[in-house]
Amino acid sequence: MATRRTTDAPPTAQLELTEALHDFFRAARRARGRAARDPSPNGLSLAQYHLLEPLAGGPRTNRELAELAGISAPTATRMVDGLLQRALVSRVEDPTDRRAVVISLSETGRAALALKEREYESVRSRIAAAFEPHEQELATDLLRRLAAVIEEL
Amino acid sequence: MATRRTTDAPPTAQLELTEALHDFFRAARRARGRAARDPSPNGLSLAQYHLLEPLAGGPRTNRELAELAGISAPTATRMVDGLLQRALVSRVEDPTDRRAVVISLSETGRAALALKEREYESVRSRIAAAFEPHEQELATDLLRRLAAVIEEL
DNA sequence: TATTGTTATACTCTATAACTATA
DNA sequence: TATAGTTATAGAGTATAACAATA
């Protein structure tokens, strides 16, 4: 759709914002779809990255990982199952509370996480390069609002 | 001091932006999970909305819908299958090219689409209310850049 | 041969409900 | 009883590969 550029802000700006939102959500959806396919051997999907991220600071229980990633406990279990098969994490009984399990990063897992973090770093740099500091603040604000809105969408 | 700041952007702004991106994707993930359990009878998921939207302007082939939604043809077929069962669309052979199918909105489908559009309208209003007009332009710009960046994530 | 669509297959990610084991 | 985790089950959404029908 050809973007019509006028100097007056009011209605045009809102329409374009709507359209940009649309494109953004579509891109996000497509990104999730692509991420489901795992081309690289030690690659992490976005969801896996979110799950593993807290482990950089030390071992966690299944429950903790689920809560920090904002997912249900069974989902965390299932995801950890897959990561176990790829030897990215270990999962052992907690000796102090035998109901619980302790999940830790393996060296491979730590490397995979670091790689993904560098990818995020690259994304951040690209955004940072494209916007002024005060625009970055606006971006943060905007994304936070979008996240909140999505929760009730 | 190896401060390699491209601009005067304090690292805090960049870190918060990264975190906001993180929160946004987590919210989007969870939203999709919830959508699987959508209780509303004629509700549309975001993906379904993106698929049906072009139909407001008239019938389309499966191929066209897939391309416009940015998904594969089999995915479009599958999604249309579900929408057919709910009688939100119709799907008939194209008499002029019998390889193709023509997909159209039913009255119910049109209503569901309109409802979702009103929901988006509400989202837009909330965002618009939160930002000044010139900030809306920035937000539009920002979302476009984010969408582009996400495509290569 | 090229295009359109569907079917077959497979995967990730999400959830709730029911269950086991431990506290 | 309450909590941690897993298993069972279900479903959306994504993809590629193989197929049939038509142009």
Descriptive labels:
homodimer, 153 residues, mainly alpha, Arc Repressor Mutant, subunit A, 3-stranded antiparallel beta sheet, 3 strands, 64% helix, elongated, DNA-binding
Beta fraction of chain A: 5-15%
Q: Overall mean pLDDT score of chain A?
A: 83
Number of domains of chain A: 1
Class from helix and strand fractions of chain A: mainly alpha
> Which two protein chains have the largest interface (Cβ within 8 Å of the partner's Cβ), and how many residues from each?
A-B, 59 and 60 residues
Characterise the protein shown here.
- The structure is a homodimer of 153-residue chains.
- Chain A is mainly α.
- Chain A has one domain: Winged helix-like DNA-binding domain superfamily/Winged helix DNA-binding domain (Arc Repressor Mutant, subunit A, Orthogonal Bundle), CATH 1.10.10.10.
- Chain A has 6 helices and 3 strands; from the N terminus they run H-H-E-H-H-E-E-H-H.
- Chain A has a 3-stranded antiparallel beta sheet.
- In chain A, helix 2 packs across helix 3 (62-69) and helix 3 crosses helix 4.
- Chain A is elongated and about 60 Å long.
- Mean pLDDT of chain A is 83; it is low at 1-10.
- The interface between A and B is large, with 59 and 60 residues.
- The structure holds a DNA duplex (23 and 23 nucleotides).
Task: Map the helices and strands.
The structure is a homodimer of 153-residue chains.
Chain A: H1 10-36, H2 46-52, E1 60-61, H3 62-69, H4 73-85, E2 89-93, E3 101-105, H5 107-130, H6 133-151
Chain A binds a DNA duplex (23 and 23 nucleotides) through residues 29-30, 32-38, 45, 47-48, 61-63, 71-79, 81-82, 94, 97-101.
